[in-house]
Amino acid sequence: MLVAAWWGAWATRRGMLAPRWMLWTLAGFTFSGWLATLCGWLVTEIGRQPWLVTGILRTADAAGGASGAQLGASLTAYVVTYTAMFLAYLVVLTHLAGKGAQA
Amino acid sequence: MSLDLPLVFAALMGLAMLMYVVLDGYDLGVGMLMPAADAREQELMVASIGPFWDANETWLVLGVGILLVAFPVAHGIVLGALYLPVAWMLIGLMLRGVAFEFRIKAEGWHRELWNALFWFGSFLASFAQGFMLGRYITGFHSGFGYTLFALLVGASLCGGYVLLGSTWLILKTQGVLQAKALAWARWGLAWVALAVALVSLATPIVSQSVQAKWFDFPRTILLMLLPLATLAAGWWIWASTGRLKRGESEPDWVPFAAAVAIFALAFAGLAYSLFPFVVIDRMTIWEAAAHRSALEFMLVGVVIVFPFLIAYTAFAYRVFRGKARAGLYE
Predict the structure, then answer these.
(1) How many other CB atoms are there within 10 angstroms of residue B46's CB atom?
(2) Predicted ipTM?
(3) Does the beta carbon of B109 lie under 8 angstroms from any beta carbon of chain A?
(4) Which end of chain B has fewer CB atoms at under 10 Å, N or C?
(5) Which chain B residue shows the shortest CA-CA distance from A88?
(6) What is the pLDDT of residues A28-70, one digit of tens each?
(7) Hey, are the CB atoms on B94 and A65 less than 8 Å from each other?
(8) Within a 10 A sphere around the Cβ of B165, how many other Cβ atoms?
């Protein structure tokens, strides 16, 4: 991401226009920050197991009493909702980006 | 002098919850009324809650936050027992939040889709909250009767929010939409009557201690002021919407104020019933409270944050006072 940022800064120095293939590459970076955050989070969450609070509280001891079926139902609902909203987000993003180019 | 910190935090938590129910209640109610209005009216309705709805939800975060940090054991019991309805509520709040932002940018059937999701999210969140209230005041007992009761409270809380939402629209709109809102308010009022009756009858039946508190002469006579005042507020809404309907001179804020009064009175009754329990008949606020040093530490934060919350809320309502205009929120 850092390389891409510096590369972009270099390519647009003194009001120069970046080449089209490069713009497409940068467009691909739209989700890089998001991906990096998720990956970092995943690493910390998995890395600290089996502790919830290292040395003080185990994850197994802190888990609530909700049944597997309840957890399954809510997880499914969250995944479906977030997937639908992510798709909607992509549609809106594309739509707004297209509108910007016409203006 | 030593402060009774669990009591202070219980009062703050109660205040946050009441603020949430009244404030987010009216914007959830407006969301549920969307299908009853035409496209132009819908823009006005959304504009009337546009500057406020986001901030209204922060009170829920504050209330549940206080439950977590000040009464951690009760937080575990309450949210553990209400795991599924909490999940449904969150999905409802997510859907309506996204729909609120996206519906403005969408056109044609896309906008209709977001309107439908806005309605559905508002309904799901309201219903889940009522369901949770029903489960909470019956002590999380399982069984068909208890579930049915929770479902009824869920439906009637939706009606209560519709009352708040429609009286809010009476205050914030005029003309045809206001006339529609006057009719909606009366429907909402019927549901609120059902809700208040259900909860008032159920709590003493379920809990001996609640029964003992309310039917304890001569205190009962003084306590009867609460239901009487609630009845008066309900009658006041009926009479006031009637006067507004006939075009007689009547301030447009009266129905909303009376609706808020009903919620505040119902809240006071509930607080009296439950106190000193945080989980009915099982755990008092002192048994559930976090360690004193933790409460003292948090009190510092609360003393700093609370005045800001109150101040920016008051400021926002001052800036956006008066009738709503379409396109105010784009």
Answers:
(1) 24
(2) 0.73
(3) no
(4) N
(5) B102
(6) 888 888 899 999 999 998 988 888 888 888 888 777 777 888 8
(7) no
(8) 31
